[in-house]
Design a protein that fits this description.
Helix 4 runs antiparallel to helix 5 and helix 5 packs antiparallel against helix 11. With about 350 residues, the chain is an all-alpha fold. It contains 14 helices and no strands.
């Protein structure tokens, strides 16, 4: 009896320390996500005071109901009609693109994959260009961009399903996405050629470069609903993404239906990406750069990686937008600034790609 008791005790000691190590690691990672969330809130608060129309902390507090001082109507309009909606959309868009990028890199097991891989960004951009050429209202243009983005991914999936019999399905899907994206990019160029040069063409060009200058309070709801609908399933499937990142055969052996999981992830990521392009235009590199930074901070575990990617993406786009609207007298398109940061990072990534998939 004593021998059995001692054996049992000896077996539970390493298990105890292993469990304790996992719990400490989990708590540390969760604390890191909380810190990232606090940083995002701090940057969002600081963004209230950035812009060509200066708002003091006293004015902001008074407008938010803290204090009894009178504030002019112009300051109220700037805060509630321009600045707060812009900050909210920047946070949602940056977080959505980064989360979608992290999910794409996991299911394709490729560190150089971004949300526009399957043609979602090009398709949504075509919808924007088409709506501007036709002179449609802003709400209709955004709905058209969103629908065209989904159509582009649907075409990619259809082509992939027809060509992937007995072949590498991931490679076929990626190549199909490149083809579809190229077609929609060519269609955008065609529409720009046919557009009226004095008004339609500049509108198309500026929108596709990415900007938050025209964001209103109604756009917050328009972009928030599809982003939430896409983010919730990804969060619920986060542990399955961990299994899928091990490889197709390993995931199938563990009982994960890889084709369904990949389809669900693609649809959710496309929903988030297309809704962002529909409101903000094409903002590149966020879905490529930010997931790598999040992976370096929290590790490759998708139970924490998705949250870290969201908060890092939200903070990053807030900072870029602050630079875009406060650095010069003329607002700089977001796509230019994100490319200036993302392109050097991509070059650095290429130099390390031979070392393999690393966190």
């Amino acid at each position: 009896m004593n021998g059995e008791r001692n054996t049992s005790r000896e077996m539970t000691v390493p298990q105890f320390f292993s469990l304790r190590h996992r719990q400490e690691k989990t708590r540390g990672t969760q604390s890191g996500i909380v810190l990232l969330a606090l940083i995002t809130i701090a940057v969002a608060t600081a963004s209230l005071f950035v812009g060509r129309y200066a708002l003091s902390p006293h004015q902001v507090l008074s407008l938010l109901g803290v204090g009894n001082s009178n504030v002019d109507e112009r300051a109220e309009a700037v805060l509630f009609q321009i600045r707060l909606p812009r900050i909210a959309v920047a946070m949602l868009a940056g977080g959505a693109l980064a989360t979608a990028g992290a999910a794409y890199q996991g299911i394709f097991r490729n560190p150089m994959v971004s949300p526009d891989l399957l043609g979602a960004t090009a398709g949504a951009g075509f919808g924007v260009a088409l709506g501007l050429v036709w002179g449609l209202p802003v709400g209709v243009i955004q709905a058209l961009a969103f629908g065209c983005g989904l159509v582009a991914v649907a075409i990619t999936c259809l082509i992939s399903s027809q060509l992937s019999h007995g072949k590498d399905s991931i490679l076929v899907m990626v190549l199909s996405g490149i083809v579809v994206g190229s077609v929609f990019t060519s269609l955008i160029a065609l529409l720009k050629t046919l557009a009226e040069p004095s008004s339609r063409l500049p509108a198309i060009t500026f929108w596709l470069m990415g900007s938050l200058s025209g964001v209103t309070s109604s756009d917050v709801k328009l972009v928030a609903v599809p982003i939430v609908l896409g983010a919730i399933p990804l969060y619920l499937l986060r542990w399955r993404l961990n299994v899928l990142s091990l490889g197709e055969d390993e995931a199938s052996a563990l009982g994960v239906k890889t084709s369904r999981l990949r389809l669900a992830t693609v649809l959710c990521s496309t929903l988030m990406t297309a809704s962002t392009v529909a409101v903000c235009g094409s903002i590149g590199w966020v879905g490529l750069v930010i997931p790598h930074l999040a992976r370096a901070l929290t590790g490759p575990d998708y139970r924490t990686l998705l949250g870290a990617s969201f908060f890092l993406g939200a903070t990053y786009l807030l900072v870029v937008d602050n630079l875009a609207r406060g650095f010069t007298a003329t607002e700089i398109p977001l796509g230019i600034l994100t490319s200036l940061v993302g392109a050097p990072f991509f070059a650095y990534l290429i130099t390390r790609v031979k070392k393999g998939w690393a966190a």
